[in-house]
Amino acid sequence: MANPNDFIAIDRVSKIFEPIDHRMAPVTVIDDVSLDIREGEFVVFLGPSGCGKTTLMRMVGGLETATGGEIRLAGERVTGPDRRKGMVFQAYSSFPWLTVYENIRFGLRYRNDVDAAEKRRIATHYMELVGLQDFADFYVNRISGGMRQRVAIARTLAAGPDVLLMDEPFGALDAQTREFLQYQLLGINRSERKTVIFVTHDVEEAVFLADRIVMFSARPATIIEQIQVGDHIEGERELETKETQAFFHLRNHVLEAMRVQARRTEEIERGAAG
Amino acid sequence: MSLRGLFAFRGQSSSRTDAAMAVVAFILFVALWYLLAYFQFVPQRFLPLPTDVVVALWDMTVYGDFLRDIWISVARVWAAFLLSVVMAIPLGIWMSSYRIVGTLTEPIIDFIRYLPVPALVPLLIIWLGIEEASKVAVLWMGTFFQLVLLIADDAKRVPREFVEIGYTLGARNRQILKDIVWRAMLPSTVDNLRITLGWCWTYLIIAEIVAANSGIGHAIWSMRRFVKTPEVMAGILAVGIIGLVTDQLIRYAHRRWFRYL
Question: Is B170 in the A-facing interface, judged by CB distances under 8 Å?
Fold first, then answer.
């Protein structure tokens, strides 16, 4: 393994979308972004909707290709998706034809390094870790959206990835469920110690979850600011952390920066329309 | 049993009420028919009594050769239907998986799909004769090209996320098709198969009327020559009953197989 300080190296990455309709101009979504992520770090990509932060995360997952620059995972160039880069989506995250347990077990389906008994053990372990053992035999259409996202997280972890990529996983949930899952995710990650890239446009979510917040500008995405949350908020994150002065200050700071970007996005859209 | 929901604008009703209303509609229909025929509002030569039709169906199946005709028709329908299915499912999935297959086949399939099948019957008879092959070919022409597009569409409507989840769990293309795409599209595909099976019967009767010496269509057509209206209607009734029973059986299987929906 290469330098642990750049477990994930995003090296001068750009992405230009060539529109299918050739009469339209190509769109630069990501412009020359460089970023190093340590092993075990929880990094939140924060930016206005449509800024390209999801695209960048998908490129780390090998689901999109960069038009410039390269991305390395543990020193190895990312060329496509595989089991080392686990993904949790906002929607369609679990398979309706499988039960909760079967969904989690599915995460191990393509692993040849463990036998069937071990697969059962791992699947059960992660089902318990996300607290769904009482719902093992429920089809996922019968459980709530929050539970479904927990199924997806457990399934992804069961596959044994090196990095966990989360694309606004709690974006479709109501506020209470979202807060509960954020807290649960922190707990899970304390025991799993995964490297996480978490994409969101929710400032409070970013401040609550992140070791480091990477703030992106409106399209084309460039990094405008990085914040080590630990420099501002001390100690383990608990739900009460959200009520502290430090949390409040940091949240306001980030919110202000994001407002500027939101205004810029609108100007860009207006410019494109006019 | 509350009936208010039946009359409210966009109201709701229980499945029990729905079943009861289906029986009511059926009884009303038969009663109206009976009255029209009994009082000769329509001459009985054209509109026999419902009971005459039932008696005709009984006589045809018990004393005549009608059971053999039914068997032959069912065999033709299923032969053509299964042929369409085993060809349409792989091709449809393949079309949706690779643009090169889709872009090459879609224009041709769309063209053939718009050809009226009865117009092809003479050609198919020239090519294949009047034996079983031409009948199966007519049904196949009528269903395969429709079905393959429906299957391709089912496969295309599988959420992109499902496929990407497969990749990030380490699946290969073949495994994604078998374990994810196929499983995700299966409920709507079974529905499309059920509907396609219904079309088979439409084309079957056409094929059997034009050129056949057996089958339900042939039976109906030969009764017509002697203006045996009850027997003609009995033949039609038989097709309706077979269609309804098959349809309900597949619906039942759908509910059993896809309990999670």
Answer: yes
Which residue in this structure is represented by tokens 């038969």?
Answer: B30
Residue type for position B41: F
- Minimum Cα–Cα distance from A156: chain B residue: B169
Domain presence at residue A66: no
Whether residue A222 is predicted with pLDDT greater than 80 in this model: the reply is yes
pLDDT digits (tens, 9 = 90+) for A80-113: 999 999 999 988 889 999 999 999 999 999 999 9
Whole-Å CA distances, B235 to B53, B173, B220, B244: 9, 49, 6, 14
Predicted-complex ipTM score: 0.90
Distances (CA, A) of A163 to A7, A84, A92: 10, 7, 20
pLDDT value of position B54: 94
Residue A259 domain flag:
no
Residue of A nearest to B257 (CA): A97
Neighbouring-strand partners of residue A35: A10
Q: ∠B80-B81-B84 over CA atoms, to 5°?
A: 85
Per the structure, the count of domains in chain A is: 1
Backbone angles phi, psi at B47, to 5 degrees: -125, 90
Confidence band for A260, pLDDT divided at 50, 70 and 90:
confident
| CA pair distance A89, A63, nearest whole angstrom | 13
Q: Is residue A131 part of a domain?
A: yes
Q: What is the DSSP secondary structure assignment for residue A24, as one 8-state letter?
A: S
* Closest chain A C-alpha to B250 CA, distance in angstroms: 19
- CB within 8 Å of chain A, chain B residues 50-89: none
Q: What is the pTM of this model?
A: 0.87
Instruction: Indicate the range of A22-36, A95-109, B234-248 predicted with least confidence.
Output: A22-36
CA distance B112 to B115: 5
> Which tens digit of pLDDT belongs to each residue from A132-158?
999 999 999 999 999 999 999 999 999
